[in-house]
Structures are given as structure tokens and as C-alpha cells.
């Protein structure tokens, strides 16, 4: 198919987005159902057109069509097929197209499954979605067009940044964008409610699944990005408080808060105004992240290209949407009726505490991320705010939040009983304390801090299990009854327990690896050995190797267990990608139980030795396993029938019966 | 090409149809939003009962919550009544105008914007199809790129290098040409023709100066075949550039006398001998150029180019000299001046004259386009 057809489809999508952003809005004002309904077919057709454009671009990458500037800049005919496909979004233009594709996907989902929504709300939501799509399609077409042609077409491309030539590129950006962009739905709902001037119970019931899905994807995306950086960059760290990482972490924190406040709103019709504000803030932080990463304000692996026009354009989008939404909020928030009452000690109260702490933490990260930029803009001085700042501010704020997490699900709605909650949790607390003490006394090198952290992580895990046990009546009723009740619990209860337990696992991993990690840096001669953890590593020598589009020096290591038996080998290498002449390090990682042995090699010394860095990372995989469990919790909760649909199933059944008749 | 426009038109039609769809299905009804709210509140009541049964909420609190939900349901019914009274009069005319504008906006915006942004005439060019395409149809640059790609994979292919080298030279890529000739000599062995061609490429790279490297190549060629006309011609030119005018003239005259009448070199040698005049760098200049650093040599070449430029201002009738000047400027990467020189040359000959067109063509090959026109 002609590349130009994709280009035309994208332009046509912009035309449709313009219609989608204006006509339903006018329809809602005039009270015309036909005009309001224009939003749905345009949203679905828009998805089709953007999907055509994306497919055409992907095909151009697969077929190495260097008459497309974007393909020439970021591809190479010798690249493996997988990286040709993922290379489609491994660059600025393509990644923005993926962004818009996911935005259109969410818009079309609302259009397709939103039949139960009140018509004006649906029209307004689709109009706001259309407005976001219009802004980003215009941004793509006018400042970062992936379909710009190159005449005459060169015979070979300039290849993709080698760091991005990894399976991580296939997973990390799509997941992250599903998260970022998923919050746009919450934003559209919030703005639509403000335009409408009224907000009702159905609103929260509708917003929550979208937020939940976005949150689950974002959790997975961040975890994947963290693991990718961990094994690809060869520094052995899993989180660097890099501004780009923070850019994805802030929407996650705000999204977590939104998720919890939406529960209060759905169940008790309280916290309406606050939830709307959070929905706006969460997507604003997603947009801010996009701005920080895409404008070239920050230079990192993620800033594929820097171009001032793009920065100004994104800044204009940012100002329009955030400023517009907040202005609308200021005008209309007072009109939204406040909801139910509750005591400070109650489920609602616990969720408010969660919200307060999460938003404070978000603000802290925001300050830490933007402060260096502001200082540079004002004084021209380059400073960096790194781990020390965040350890001093983020950690003390986050610890109390973690400590109170198990109480939330234990408290009753409206008026809770703190003593009762304590009583139910005493077993979990005791177990966590015992393990903390054991690890302090039995594991050498364990500090008090490590023991405390381990105790905290386990407290979260045991607390989540206690929640399930209490709700199914373990201890009060017989095992058979308890099991039956456990099966009968709503899926959202399991979701909550999984998400909280996953958080505990992640905390456990972070604490173990930061306090108990071993690092060895040494120069090794072939045959020499090094001890790490309970394992011994023998350097076997360097061997050259040629891959499809790179050459590398592989360092081979033999691994021996505590019992001196051979446990296989680890290969760590330094790669040179020939097309760009760019070197990368490929860490050698061996997972043993939950822990990992991480080997990264440096330069060769004059006497034939090799600089080797070896880390023993105890329980490090728990960080990502925890994140996956959290994501799973979100997904399980999403499967809860009560969340998935706008109106209860009864109405559906009636409608089906009506049609059948 | 035609297919593209047909498909584009179909897509536009489908998009416009999507906008029209709600108006085609004429069914003006709207389910009241309150029905959904009511369902949610009923659910809240049901959940409340479950929570009460599980002991998650105390009985008095549940009672209070039930009352709260009841109040919300009442408020909902009041709102519905109020909404029922203020049914908005539908302004049918406005609605129809908006609908028409929306449907028309789709083709107008998309075709207008695409005309501005797109390149509809450009087909897709997948690499595999291009590599399999008939080479006779391909432009020269593409043929070269294919040859380069082939040689990158088969660097030992002597014949490939030998074919590519003169193509480079003709395009003015003398550095690449010289490298290709060197590779040919290394792979296929020395021959007089190859060394002479290498020498000529080196001369081209130095904007017409026979450098020491070039002279060594010519000497090598003459060692293999003392009659090689190309090498003889450039050796004579080297003498001329060293200021040994008499020696140069003698060599050229000898060539002109000895070569068979159909040899192109015979005429060239004759002309060269005849054109030898006093103009040119002095003996001292040349002597100085022998052992210079590259920077100094470049300075000197630039001095000579400036001299040539000045001479052509006085006597602009020499097309060959103009060619030399243009090439020198391109080699020195002074494209602005090359463009200006081209303007002057075209003014001198007349842009439409045969000489003028030949010069313009030559300039295009060098990559100078006459943007002034």
C-alpha cells in the first residue's frame, strides 16, 4: 500500500477529530440527540484511520522503505524483524503516533461501550477526547510528521539507537502509553462533568474502571522500564530518580490517589469535587511527562530529538488543557453538590489520608523534578536533584502511608473502629515483627533499618492476607464455610488484597537490595575467581562474537554454588553496533531463587586483565514481581462485574429480553 | 497513482458517512440520565445490605446510610421533574446547519491539508523491490548505492571496484574514485591504465594540481607502459605547473606528433602545447609547494584559484578555465562562490548559448544549482 495513504488517513483523522470535538458539544448545548450522537461514529472511524496510518508506518519499517524520512533516520535493513517493528515507536514521531493510536482506542472504547451513559455526559466526554486527539494530531502533522518523504531515497538507513534495540522497546512504551493515555478518559469525564455542571453516582462508577485499567498498565509500564534500565544500562540500579522516570511516576502516584478517591465517590457519593480535581491533575501530570520527555527540555535516552518548535507546541497543548480544565474547575466546582458525611476514623477517612499522603508525595516528586529546570532557566546554573533529595523527602512521607495501608480495608464505612481493626491485624503485625527480629539477629550484615523495612514489607503482605481471611470469616466460621465465603467474595476484594500485597513485595525487594546488596569491583585475569553472595565466579576469558548488526567481546564466567558445584555460566559483553559505531554493555544476569547475580564488564587493562563489576542482589526480583502482582490486582478488580458496566446487569437483561421479544 | 486517489476518496466518503450516520438513523429519543443514577443507587442499597450481613458496617450506621441514599433518590426525582419542565425547544435549522457544516468539513479539511502536507505522486519504495528492479530504469545515484551496498558485502570484488571508480570520477567524487582505483590495483594487480586513472583522480581531488602522489602514480603507469597517453599528458602538465614550460611544451608536442590521428589525446596534447603561455605560477611558487603542510598547500591552491578567478574577470571567454574554477570552488567547499562564478560565466556566454548550457550542465553534475535564476 502506498505510504501516502497512511499520511492521508492521518490527515483525515484530524478532520474527524475536529468534528468530534465540536459537534457533540454543540449538540449538548442545543439539546439535539442527533448532534450529540455524532461523537460515537467519528470516534470509532477515527480509531480506524489512525490504525491505518500506524499500520502503514509499521509496514514501511518492515519493508525498509527509506523514501520515508522517519524510516531512514531510525531503521536499517540488517536489523532483525522484531526491532524493525518496534522501531516504529522507538523514535519521536512514531511514538507520538502510538500515543494518538492509544488515545483513539480509548475514545472508541467509550463510544462503543458507553451506550448506558447519560447522553449529554457521553457527548461531552467524546468531545473532550476529540479535543485532545485534535491537539496531538495537529502536533504530529505540523511538527513531527512521520510520513515526511525523502527524495531521492537512500539505499540504507541510519539504524536505531542500539540501547533501544531490545525486547523492552516492544513492551515498555505501549504499556506506559496505555497508562498515560488511559488517564485521559478520567480527565475527559471530569471536564465533561464540569461542562455539564452536574456529577452523579454513575460518573464515579464509569471513571473507576478506566482509571483502574490505566493504573494497571502504568504500573506494568514503569516496572518494565525499570527492569529494562536495570539490565541494559549496566549500572546495576533499578531506579535513578531520573526526571524521565519521575515523569511517569507522578501520574502513577496521582492515579493511585484517584483510584482510591473514586471508590469513596462511587460507594458513598462523597469527595466528588476532590475526585474531579484529582482526575484533572492526574492527566495533567501525564501531559507534563509527555512535555518533559518530548520537548527536549530533558536530554536523555527518551528525548529522541530536540526541536524548539515541538517544545513550544507541546507547551501550548499543556497550557490549554491544564489551564482550561483548572479554570473550568474554578468556575464550576462550587456547583457540584457535596455528598455523604463520614467520621475521620472510617474507610472514607482512611482513603482521605491515603489521598493526602499520595498527593503530598506527588508534589514532592514534582518539586524535585522541576526545581533543577527552574534554577537553570533563572540562573543558568545546572544542578541535579538526585537520590539524596528523594531519600530525605519521599521516603519519610511514603513510610507512614505504607504503615497504614493494611488498616484501610479493615475499617467500616462511615464510622470505623480502630481498636477492632488493630485486633484483627494483630496476627499479621506479630508475624511481621517476628520475621523482622529474626532477620536482624540471624542474617549477618542486616542493619536495624533493613530489619524494619523487611518487617514493613511483610506487614503489607500479611495485612492483605488478613483482609481476605477476615472477610471470609476464618476463625469465626468453620473451614468449609470460610472457603465458601472466600469464593463468594467480590473480585474487587481480591484485587485490593493483591495490589496491597504486591506493594508489600515490591517494598521487600527494594529494602533487601538496597541494604543487603554486595558489590565487587576488581580486575580479573582469566582463571581468577571472585566470591559474591554464596556463589563463586571464575573468569574464563574473552571471546569475540558477531551478531546480525553488531560485534561484541563476550566475557565468559563459570558459576559455582556454595557446594563448589558448577552451576552453569554467565556471559557479559561489550557490544559495538557498526551502523552508528555506538558501544553498549550487555550485563550478564543469573537469577538464583529470587536473587540475582549481576555481572558487568569494563575495559581491558594493559596486562591482559579485565575490569569486572559483580553485584549480588538479594531478592531483587521481588521489586518487579511485586509490581506485576499489583498489576494483576488491578486486572482482577477490573473483572469485577459491578465495575465493568455502567448500569447493573439487570437492565441489560431486560434490554436483551426486549430485543428477543 | 489512480488507485491512491480512488482509495483516498473512498476513505473520505467513509469518514463523512460516519459523521452523517446519526442523522440517517432518525430516532430522536433520549433515555433519561436519571435511570442510570437510580440503578447505581439501588446497587448501593443492595451492597449496603451485604456489608451489613458481613458485619462491615454497624446497624445504626447502615440505617443512616440508607437514609442518605434515599435522600439522593428523592433529589434525583425532583431534578427529573424540573428537567421535564424545561425541555429545550429544538432549533432544527441550527442543528441542520451544524450537521451540514460538519459533513462538508471532513473532505474540505482533509483534502486541503493533504494538498499542503502530502506528496501524492510519490510511490512507496520498499528496499527489496528496489533491489530487484530493472537497473536500466534506476537513476545513477541509486546504481551507485547498489554497487556500494554490494561492495560492502563483497569487498574482494575487484571488478566491482573497477566499474565503480570511473563513475565516481565522472560525478566529481574524486576521493572515492582514487580509493576505488587503489582497491582495484590491490586486488587485481597493477596496470598502466589503472595507475594512470588513479593519478587523474588524485589530480581531480587537488582541483587540477598534479600533486606528488599523482605524479608517482603516473610514473608507475609509465613504468608499466611507457606509451600510456594519459600518464604522459599529466606528466607534461606537472612540468607545466612546476613552471618548466619548455619541457612541458616539448613533451606535449612530442605526444601530438607520435599519437595516431584517432586518439583523443593527440588533439588535447596539441591544444595544451599551444595554450602554454607565460600565465601561471612562478618557478618559486612551485618550488615552495613541493614540501608543504596540507594547510599551507591548501592556502596556496586557494591563492591560485583566486588568480584564476581574477583572470576570468578580465578574459571571460575560456570555457575550460571556467570549468576548472567551478570545480576548484566545489572541492574547496566554497559553494557560494561557485554559484557566483557560474552566474558570471553564464552572463559571459549567454545562458542559452551552447557553451552556457554545457557549463550549467557541468555545474549541476558538481552539485551547484543555479538558484539565481
From TrEMBL, chain A:
Fetch the InterPro entries from UniProt. CcmF_C (IPR032523), Cyt_c_assembly (IPR002541), Cyt_c_biogenesis (IPR003567), Cyt_c_biogenesis_CcmF (IPR003568)
**Top-level lineage group:** Bacteria
The coiled-coil segments of this chain are: none
Residues annotated as domain Cytochrome c assembly protein: 89-295
Question: Transmembrane region positions?
Answer: 6-30, 42-62, 96-113, 125-142, 175-195, 207-229, 249-266, 273-292, 312-331, 352-374, 394-413, 425-443, 449-470, 491-516, 622-643
Residue span, Cytochrome c-type biogenesis protein CcmF C-terminal domain: 315-641
Q: Does the keyword Transmembrane apply?
A: yes
Q: Does the keyword Cell inner membrane apply?
A: yes
Q: Which UniProt keywords apply?
A: Cell inner membrane, Cell membrane, Cytochrome c-type biogenesis, Lyase, Membrane, Transmembrane, Transmembrane helix
State any single GO MF term. lyase activity
Which family is this protein grouped under? Belongs to the CcmF/CycK/Ccl1/NrfE/CcsA family.
PANTHER family, per database record:
CYTOCHROME C ASSEMBLY PROTEIN-RELATED, CYTOCHROME C-TYPE BIOGENESIS PROTEIN CCMF
Q: What is this protein called?
A: Heme lyase CcmF/NrfE family subunit
Q: What organism is this sequence from? A: Chelativorans intermedius
Which lineage ranks, top first, belong to the organism behind this chain?
Answer: Bacteria, Pseudomonadati, Pseudomonadota, Alphaproteobacteria, Hyphomicrobiales
From TrEMBL, chain B:
Its localization reads: Cell envelope
UniProt name for this protein: C-type cytochrome biogenesis protein CcmI
Q: Which SUPFAM superfamilies match?
A: TPR-like
**Residues of the Cytochrome c-type biogenesis protein H TPR domain:** 149-264
Q: What is its main location?
A: other
**InterPro entries from the UniProt entry:** C-type_cytochrome_biogenesis (IPR051263), Cyt_c_biogenesis_CcmI (IPR017560), TPR-like_helical_dom_sf (IPR011990), TPR_CcmH_CycH (IPR056413)
Q: Which residues cross the membrane?
A: none
Could you tell me which NCBIfam families the record lists for this protein? cytochro_ccmI (TIGR03142)
Keywords, A to Z, come to: Cytochrome c-type biogenesis, Repeat, TPR repeat
